[in-house]
Amino acid sequence: MRGDGGDIYWRRRMSVLVAVLVVVAVVAWACSSGGSGPERASSAQSSPSVTPSADPLLAGLRTLALGTASPSPTPSATPKATPSPRPKRPGEPCEEKDLVLSLQSGKEPIYAGDARPSFIVTLVNTGSVMCTADVGPRAVEVRITSGADRIWSTADCVSGPGADVRKLERGVPYVHSLEWDRRRSSDDCRASPPTALPGTYVATVRMGKLRGGKGVFHLR
Questions:
Q1: What CATH number is given to the structural domain containing 178?
Q2: In this structure, are residues 205 and 101 in contact, taking their beta carbons and an 8 Å threshold?
Q3: What pLDDT was estimated at residue 208?
Q4: What DSSP state is assigned to residue 52?
Q5: pLDDT at position 1, please?
Q6: pLDDT at 55 over 70
Q7: Same domain for 26 and 124
Q8: Which residue of 3, 38, 59, 198 sits 20 to 30 Å from the alpha carbon of 79, by its own alpha carbon?
Q9: Both 135 and 205 in a single domain?
Q10: What value, to the nearest 5°, has the Cα angle with vertex 48 and ends 46 and 52?
């Protein structure tokens, strides 16, 4: 908006100056035409040619025209500084990228009779400082499936708050062992869940978006 107003201002100034030049030229022409023709002719022939001096008014118009044509410099953008990440403090919640989750099944791949499958869950903090993590049965879920059938989960029918927050030192694994009673589980907490049938089963462990592998075993 300021640039458009400046252009209009200078255009009006130039129009006024041009009008003044036209009036001066008309007056000069009228004065010159009032004299005698022969005398003007003889004076024109006898007088040497004189180089006209630069008209300050025309020079001013030229300066104004050049001034309006030159664009104003654009200020360069100041680069924004990237903030450095805040250093981690001991005891803060662990980040998933710093955790390694794994599951190991029992030594025996086949369980016959009343033998119960067992598993070992480990969680390791690879971060720079000690952090805390919930390793309760809901947060760290061990699930057993058979094909597409969900057979059992540690997250089903958890009594109490279900949370178990632990301090994880760098490189020191948290180890949790558990066994399956060979019965199915469900979120409706049945009083007498049915026993799983003989077959092939797969155990997995998960913690949020983390996955810790799987273990395959058989019931007989």
A1: 2.60.40.2360
A2: yes
A3: 95
A4: P
A5: 45
A6: no
A7: no
A8: 3
A9: yes
A10: 135
Domain with 31, as residue range(s), is: 2-42+56-69
Q: Taking residues 29-44, what's their average pLDDT?
A: 48
DSSP string, 175-204: EEEEE--SB---TT--SSPPBPPSEEEEEE
Quote the tokens at residue 177: 């062992």
The CA distances from residue 104 to 57, 61, 121, 154, 217, in Å, are 96, 91, 7, 16, 11
Separation of alpha carbons 47 and 35, rounded Å = 16
Separation of alpha carbons 132 and 56, rounded Å: 83
Angle separating helix axes 56-69 and 2-34, nearest 10 degrees? 160
178 & 127 share domain = yes
Does a structural domain hold residue 103? Answer: yes
pLDDT at 106: 79
Among 91, 173, 90, 89, which Cα is nearest to 126's? 173
CA geometry: angle 40, 46, 50, nearest 5 deg: 90
Does residue 148 belong to any structural domain of this protein?
A: yes
Residue with tokens 């979120």: 187
Among 206, 218, 217, 129, smallest CA distance to 167 is for 129
Taking only the tens place, the pLDDT of each residue in 132-158 is 999 999 999 999 999 999 999 999 988
Residue 151, exposed/middle/buried by CB under 10 A (0-12, 13-18, 19+)?
A: buried
The radius of gyration of the chain's CA atoms, rounded to the nearest angstrom, is 47
For the chain, how many structural domains are there in total? 2
Burial degree of 150 (CB within 10 A; 0-12, 13-18, 19+): middle
Among 196, 206, 207, 112, residue whose Cα is nearest residue 146: 196
